[in-house]
Write a structure and sequence with these properties.
Blueprint lengths: L2 H7 L13 H12 L10 E6 L2 H8 L10 E8 L14 H18 L3 E2 L7 H7 L6 E10 L17 H4 L17
Antiparallel strand pairs: 1-2, 2-4, 3-4
Helix pairs in contact: 2-4
Length: 183
């Protein structure tokens, strides 16, 4: 499939079937994350595959946004392994984890699987439930599975700003500050 077509067709799946994800497909998704670009190629990603009943039950105590998926990937980064920008010491681990998550989402879509990026989870609860060490930072939760037959994209999925609203050439002159009405 053409990349832009894949990117446009991929949507956040919020209804999953009970069908299990085949190990071969999971391996391809994890490989997409493994080969993702990271700052200075430090590869700080640490991914927890949550696939057994006990783990999925624990997950439900950490977020309401699990969507009853048959599995989930918790994408973290290792603060001891992530690159820090020398000018301001900004940790690029969250950027790396985001790139990795995106590549895995697109690979899943290419395989006919669904995901949704979940950032709305209790980090203290998730650390406790999965015994995550302090040096690992949870960034994204990726429920993963086959979309249910009645699952459709959200009504806002296809709505995008015009290019001139998000892209500027050589200067941000004239840009207006956006105020968010969402929480």
């Amino acid at each position: 499939m053409d990349f832009l077509e894949l990117a446009k067709e991929r949507y956040s799946v919020r209804k999953f079937s009970d069908k299990k994800v085949e190990q071969e497909k999971l391996d391809l998704i994890l490989e997409a994350g493994r080969i993702a670009p990271t700052a200075v190629n430090f590869q700080p990603q640490r991914i927890l595959v949550i696939e057994n009943e006990e783990g999925l039950e624990k997950l439900k105590s950490c977020t309401i946004y699990h969507f009853h998926a048959p599995m989930a990937l918790l994408v973290c980064y290792d603060t001891n392994a992530s690159w820090k920008r020398p000018y301001d010491k900004e940790d690029m681990g969250v950027v790396d984890a985001s790139i990795i998550t995106t590549q895995m989402m697109l690979q899943a879509a290419n395989l006919g699987l669904g995901t949704t990026w979940v950032g709305h989870f209790d980090p203290i609860a998730i650390r406790s439930a999965f015994e995550i060490p302090d040096f690992l930072i949870p960034v994204a939760l990726l429920p993963l599975g086959y979309p249910r037959e009645d699952c459709i994209p959200h009504k806002l999925h296809g709505i995008r700003h015009d290019m001139d609203h998000t892209v500027f050439y050589n200067t941000f002159e004239g840009i207006k500050e956006t105020t968010s009405t969402k929480e």
